[in-house]
Amino acid sequence: MSISDLPYIWMENLGGVPFLFLGTVTLGFFLLFRWAFAILPQEQWQIMAVLPRHRADSKRWHGLNLTYYGFITASAVTFAAGNMLFLLGALHVRLSISLLFVLSLMSLAVPASKIIAKVVEKKAFTFTIGGASFTGLVMAPVVAVAINEMNPQPDVLPILPALSALVVSFALGEGIGRLACISYGCCYGKPLSACSPVVRTLFKTLHCRFTGATKKIAYAGNLESVPVVPIQAITAVISTTGYLIGMGLFLTGRFAASLLVSLMITQAWRAVSETWRADHRGQGSISMYQVMSVVGIGYMIAVMMVVPSFPLAFPDLLVGLHSLWDPTVLLFLQSAWIGIFLFMGRSRMTGSVLSFFVHKEHL
Questions:
Q1: Minimal CA–CA distance to 195: which of 168, 229, 165?
Q2: Are 354 and 61 within 8 A, CB to CB?
Q3: Cα 206-208-210 angle, rounded to 5 deg
Q4: Which secondary structure element, helix H or strand E, spans residue 181, and what is its range?
C-alpha cells in the first residue's frame, strides 16, 4: 500500500462523511449569503437594540446602541474558535492544551484589532480584522512553541497541524465576519462611477447600495444609496471558499497544503481587495494592512520551512465532535461570544434618544 492509497481507504472507512460535511456547510453558506447580501445593507440592519443609559430630560433618555456588527462579529469569532477546537480535538490534542492555545491567541488578537486600528488609521473608535489576523499569525508559532516547552511530554501540540487549524479557522471567521461589515456599512467598496468601464460592467447588476444615515459609508464616505463595488460580499465568498478548500485538505491529512492554500487565498485577497475599497485605510497609496498581509504570507511560509514535518494522519471527526460537546468548551464559547459582543457591539459612533409612554387605550 502506498501513501496515495490512504485517502481512498479512509473514504471507504468513513463513508465520505467529510465530503458530506463540506457539502452541507457549502449549502449553508449559500443560503446565508443569499439572504445577507440582500438584507444587511438596509438601514434597519445596523442597530440591533438600544439600552437606556441616562436621562436627556424629563421625558427622554440617551441610549446605548447595540449593533448587528457586534452580534455577527462575536458569532464569527465563536465559530472560528469552535472550528479550531474541533480540528485540534480530531487530532487527539488534549482539550486543556487546545483551549490554552485558542484562548492565548484570542487574548492577543482581540485587543490588537483596536490598538492597530488606532495606530494605523488614527481613530480611537474603530476596529481592524486585518490587524487582528496579522497578530494571530505572528504570535501563533510562538504560542505553540511556548505551550510545548511548558509541558513535559514532547510535541503535546503538533505545530504544523495547529497552524493549519488556525489559518483554516480564520478563513471561516473572515467569511462570516464580513457580513458584519455589510451590516455596519464599513470596509466599503469604491463607487462604480469611479471605477473602470470593465468594473462598471462587471458589477452593473451585482453592486451594493447601503441605506441609512448612520451607516459608515454614509457619514464617512457620503455614499448612501450610491452603487458601490460589493467588496465585503466578494471577500465573504472568497474567504469561505478558502475555508472549504482548507478544510478538505486538512481532513485528508494534508496539513501543509491546507495551511498554505487557506493562507494564500485569504491574505493575498486582502492585499488585492484593498485596491477596490474606498474607506480610509491610513496614509499612502499602499496601506499598512496590505503590507501586513504580504508579510504574513512570507512569515508563515518561513515558519513552515523550519517547524518539524508532521506524518500523514487523518483526523478523527467523531473525536473532534465529541470534544466540542464538553461543558468546558460550551462555557468557553459562550463566554467568548459575550465578551466579543460587549467589546465590539457597543456603538461609540452612533447615539440614540428614547422616550417611553403608556398606551392608555390598553388600560
A1: 229
A2: yes
A3: 165
A4: helix 159-184
CA dihedral (305, 307, 309, 315) positive or negative: negative
Q: CA-CA distances (angstroms) from residue 324 to 89, 95, 199, 328?
A: 8, 9, 44, 9
Among candidate residues 206, 205, 231, the one with its CA nearest the CA of residue 217: 231
Query: What is the layout of strands, in order, in the sheet containing 352-355?
Result: 47-55, 60-67, 352-355
Residues in the chain, total: 363
Rounded to 5 degrees, what are φ and ψ at 354? -115, 150
The set of residues, in sequence order, having a beta carbon less than 8 Å from that of 206 and lying 6+ positions away, is 230
Provide the 10 A C-beta neighbour count for residue 103: 15
Determine contact, residues 208/230, Cβ cutoff 8 Å: yes
pLDDT in tens, 106-125: 898 888 877 877 777 676 66
Supply 187's cell numbers: 470596509
Strands 47-55 and 352-355: unpaired
| Three-class secondary structure of residue 141 per DSSP | helix
Residues 189 and 155: their CA atoms lie apart, in Å, by: 44
CA distance 240 to 353: 39
Secondary-structure percent of the chain, ordered helix, strand, coil, rounded to 5? 65, 5, 25
Query: How does pLDDT run across 245-274, given as a tens digit for each residue?
Result: 999 999 888 899 999 999 999 999 988 888
The DSSP secondary structure of 311-358, one letter per residue, reads ------HHHHHHHHSSHHHHHHHHHHHHHHHHHHSB-SS--EEEE---
At what angle are helices 17-39 and 159-184 packed, to 10 degrees? 20
| The C-alpha cell that represents 49 in the structure block | 437594540
Centroid of chain to Cα 356: 38
- Rounded to whole angstroms, the Cα distance separating 283 from 357 reads 49
pTM above 0.70, yes or no: yes
DSSP 51: E
